[in-house]
Design a protein that fits this description.
Structural class of chain A: mainly alpha
Number of strands of chain A: 2
Shape of chain B: extended
Structural class of chain B: mainly alpha
Strand order of the largest sheet of chain A: 1-2
Number of helices of chain B: 9
Strand content of chain A: under 5%
Largest sheet of chain A: 2 strands, antiparallel
Largest sheet of chain B: none
Order of helices and strands of chain B: HHHHHHHHH
Largest interface: A-B, 63 and 70 residues
Distance between the termini of chain A: 18 Å
Oligomer: heterodimer
């Protein structure tokens, strides 16, 4: 139980810290914010339930007024802006990502975690994000989708990176992979 | 950790956080059900007046927080210019600015401790499902304490990289960074257990 609380809290802190570090520039000059990478890692490492709770805890802290989102924003305002749908989908995105990593035990972890991140943190997140944007900006779903498609390739790259990171973390700290308790047998 | 609460004391700082949040929910609902430009302009004027009341410094800080909205404003404006329905576009933009500005206003005038009290009140019913509100409070405190710690360690990591390589670290630095977070989590869990663990918390 203590381990669960500590992991959930530390991952919420990790999402925050990843949002506050300067933007990371990929090899071909595309800048990415690492915060959404943190959401993916919550799912792939902590699993569905704990990953979702870590993200929920992070959002709770943002809502009560801590400037933890990328670029130091936060407060209640971000939950009614045009990108609110994405934000509110984060816990579910981490949950779905974690669920896939938990259930899909065959094959390489890097590939499974990357696919899980694409399904959870790209497909699920964009569905909610687009619905939210359509509501706030009073647009049809198709129009709202048009506004955000440009960001999808970047997020898919992040999902691949999340897959690689997850597999490296599983090798370095097998006991910490709460999404794959089988790894704990070695400890 | 610095919260977004304004250091400039306003009269609203002493109002009940629950009341402010309820008023915010209600006004946001009203905002989204109104489609008339004139009423939106009136609403926005009222909001700007609310920002202006505590003084210039408060207003400047508050309005600077709205800068995150400009990409949406540009997109919506361009889109409505293109389909020549500028009036509708302006209504949408104003509504969004109003909603975000009002929500930020509540954040700026409510202390973190008051917000945590509201969270405690709202999570009380969850006790029936076995969630102890004190555990949630412990988790909140842990995040607030550990975020700057992790940030410090992340900065040390970045410095160590720069000392050894002329190339940029890129995403690879996230691996050791996550490992640091995982190790810290293990230490924190151990420390919690050493102090009697969560069962002790429940007893108190």
């Amino acid at each position: 139980m203590e381990k669960n609380i500590a992991y959930i809290a530390l991952f919420a802190a990790l999402i925050a810290a990843l949002g506050l570090v300067p933007k990371i520039t990929l090899a071909f000059g595309v800048p990415i914010t690492a915060q959404s990478l943190g959401i993916m890692l919550c799912g792939t490492i902590l699993g569905a339930k704990r990953g979702g709770l870590a993200v929920l805890l992070f959002l709770l802290l943002v809502a009560i007024g801590l400037p933890l989102l990328s670029g130091g924003s936060g407060g209640l305002g971000v939950f009614v802006s045009a990108s609110a749908g994405f934000l509110l989908a984060w816990p579910l995105a981490a949950f779905v990502t974690g669920l896939i990593v938990e259930k899909w035990r065959s094959g390489s972890l890097a590939i499974v975690a990357a696919i899980a991140s694409v399904v959870g943190c790209v497909i699920v997140m964009y569905i909610f994000g687009i619905i939210g944007m359509a509501i706030v900006l009073d647009k049809t779903l198709l129009q709202a989708a048009g506004f955000v498609t440009a960001f999808i390739p970047g997020d898919i790259i992040k999902a691949v990176i999340a897959g690689l990171l997850t597999s490296a973390i599983a090798k370095a700290r097998p006991a910490s992979m709460l999404s794959r308790p089988a790894h704990n047998n070695t400890v | 950790m610095i919260s977004l609460t304004s250091p400039i004391e306003t009269r609203a700082h002493s109002w009940s956080a629950g009341f402010k949040l309820a008023a915010l929910c209600l006004s946001t609902l009203v905002l989204f059900s109104i489609h008339s430009l004139i009423i939106q302009i009136t609403f926005l004027t009222v909001v700007i007046t609310l920002y202006a009341l505590p003084g210039l410094v408060f207003m400047r800080y508050g309005l600077s927080k709205l800068s995150i909205l400009w990409p949406f404003i540009v997109v919506v404006f361009a889109w409505h210019l293109w389909i020549s329905e500028l009036l509708q576009g302006c209504t949408i933009i104003m509504r969004m600015i109003c909603a975000v500005a009002l929500a930020n206003l509540v954040t700026m005038t409510t202390r973190l401790s008051d917000m945590i009290d509201v969270v405690r009140f709202l999570t009380q019913p969850l006790q029936r499902f076995g969630l102890n509100p004190r555990i949630l409070e412990l988790a909140i405190a842990l995040v607030i304490r550990m975020t700057p710690v992790l940030l410090d360690k992340g900065q040390c990591l970045a410095m160590a990289w720069r000392a050894r390589s002329t190339r940029r670290s890129g995403w690879k630095i996230i691996l050791p960074f996550t490992l640091i977070a995982l190790d810290d989590a293990d230490h924190v869990a151990e420390a919690l257990r050493a102090r009697g663990g969560l069962t002790n918390l429940e007893k108190n």
